[in-house]
Batch of 3 targets.
Target 1
Amino acid sequence: MCATFYAMLYRKSVLAALLAFIFLSFFGTLGVSAWTFPQNYDWRYRVISNLLSPRDNPYHYWLPACGIAFTAVFMLPFAGYLCRNLEIASPRAARVTGGAFAAGVIALLCTCFVVPQHLHDVLGIRRLHEFLARSAAGFIAIGMLTACWCAWKIRGRSLFGARLFWTWSFVTLFPLAGIFFSESLLLLTRLKPSWAMPVRSMLRHSVFWHLGFWEWTGAAAVFVFLCAAVFLTTTRTALPYADLARDDCTNARNNAVTI
């Protein structure tokens, strides 16, 4: 029964339906919340947490919180899907991918229940929401990086093609490179302000400087990453659960005939 359940859960049709639910629950609810935001919400400059904040969005903060919570639940099966599909490249890396992705999804779910920009310590942490959000992004990024490494190892095989590797690499490395550059430049302005300040002044009004732009870019990159995991794999990537389920059914029929 368990094998049959997993075989049905990891079918492409089921995963495609989960992707549709993820898109609607995340981008749909955030889009509606941004449209009804009390002030002008510009996704290029404002972080997603502004939509979840009762202080900034007092009337509709619950909507994106519920949407992100459902998104986390819909994303959780992909942790096992990635782990099982990447075992052919490296079992250890596959477990890291699945574990990191699951940890990131759980941290994302926890962000929905902690008020952003909290003024008091929660569990000994001053900005628990921001900590959970960064943890979710970090864990998911680790899972995506290890998945890229696995795809690189087997990029020449029929199981995963070169298109999967390049798609995963682009949607993973581009947001990470942008965040790394902006954070490094921010650190350099504090250490070497004499020569870093002109660069900061030049980029300060650019969208590439603001965290909000990279948050939305990263969210879209994760969605594209999951889409590639489902649609850029061949039918041979049906998980071992499918073969196990068929073996169980065959054994059950044989036992029935024997009896």
Note: Residues 19 and 227 are 7 Å apart (CA to CA).
Target 2
Amino acid sequence: MIETILVATDGSEAAGAAERYGVALAARIHARVTCLSVVEERATRGFRSEGLGIAPPSLDALEGFLVARAEAAGRRLAAAAREQGVECTAETPRGVADDAIVERGKQADLIVLGRDGEHAGFRTALIGSTVDGVLRKTSKPAVVVPAAAELTGPVLLAFDGSPGSRIAARLAVELAGRLGETIHVFVDSKDKGRSAARFDEVRRLLGAPNVPVREAASTLGRPDAKIVDAAREASAGMIVMGAFGRSRIHEYFLGSNSAAVVRSSPVAVLLAR
């Protein structure tokens, strides 16, 4: 049962999408929100070295700015939560952002993150380093929110028969029921026989949900692209899938369908663990 949601924000415009999505989700499922805005130590750590015999500058102003920005981000999210009738507390710890989010996230049922972060305009990679760090380290389910994503429309469950996708099925049932949205089940398989077996399995996992269920399958093309296309076709408000597929170690080091979906999806993606 999702009762507490941790929304991580750095106060940037990109993070604003995660703030709005997290508050909207909490309002619709009647959950509490904790806003976490980390005073990032990496922003000042490099200036503390006295390499080449050059004394570091005074960091008082920069540290004051970082604290003020973190506190302002917390106030912004708390105000948005109050408008939606959502209970919200704000915390501004010091530390390395991804480590702080993972540690505080242990006390939450769900983590919500913006996909891009404050340096999105200067980055060539497709997700921010903080998001990447959190997704690799956390043991909690996490929602990654791209810019302009909205919590409207069905829940798309991407099911491949892996342990993570079985957990995703249970989360999809909970969320769709509490949101009052349809579940769209997408199965990717190399042959129709395996696809039919996976639909049988996911039907058993879903049981008799109190919302309608739609099914779709495909055997051709890249799985990640097909999942994103299926979400677009369903006008989904969220993709729910396992964080890892059948070969977890391989995917951790080389990337996975879930990582590719996170990078390319215009819809928020919940990675289940």
Note: The longest strand covers residues 183-188.
Target 3
Amino acid sequence: MLIGGHVSTAGGLVNAHARGVEIGAEAIQVFSQNPRQWRPTNWKPDDVAGFNGLMGSGPVEAVVIHAVYLTNCASRDKEIARKSLASLVHALRLGDAIGAVGVVLHPGSSLGGQKAAALKRVGKILREGLAEAERCPLLLEDTAGAGDTLGRSFEELAKLVEVAGGDERLGLCLDCCHMLASGFDIRTEEGLSRVMDDCDEIVGSDRLRCVHVNDSMTPLGSNRDRHAPLGEGELGDAGCAAFLSEPRFEGLPAIFEGPGFAGKAPAKEDMKKARQLRRRGLRSRERGVSRP
């Protein structure tokens, strides 16, 4: 497992790498452009080349891209759909350029419309987006289940993969905060194992490429996406330790998005806490004990 955090790209990709090194991350996540604007970032070739050179020498071993928050591939508004596709293509092409593990995407919201029609709209945009990139995977993130968001269950995630054509580049990013909020009781090793057995059966864990490790301010089934520092939310130390030591997550980037203990972006102390919790989880699994 590659413990990491979301970092800013202010000043360029090379600076994002430096921030990852500064906090002790083995993996980093970045936005492909300003997350609250449609305007794409014009990444400079020398910045991309410099970043790739740094990635080849460690200690950061993997980079994940997060699509911008404005993206809604399920929108009935043709202009929003057009902009969502353009932003997604921009992110995937950056992923191609920097060898990203994938582009993490919130599937979207039907905004009160029929779910079946919304799923078809998402599938169309995902197919078109993947066709415009050469290699970079597209990772659908599970949602906390608020409102009309898509992707709150493994069945919905599997349907999204299906309507998008089942391309091998379609993958998953599971967020433990979202999982708890949408009703998955993953607070113990046994609970998480049962949930991941379902994931295996319904979607296929071979599609899992990345996880987000965020504690939750809100309880099981709340359908509210509110992050807490690791160990200080409803998952607590035990739940975060179970998630960070799940055998099916081995080798994957495990990204903490924040806010951290300082109330800001992920910092060195958050990476330290994540590693402590992972060690605790691994020791517990060795003993065959799961603590509430």
Note: The chain has a mean pLDDT of 95.
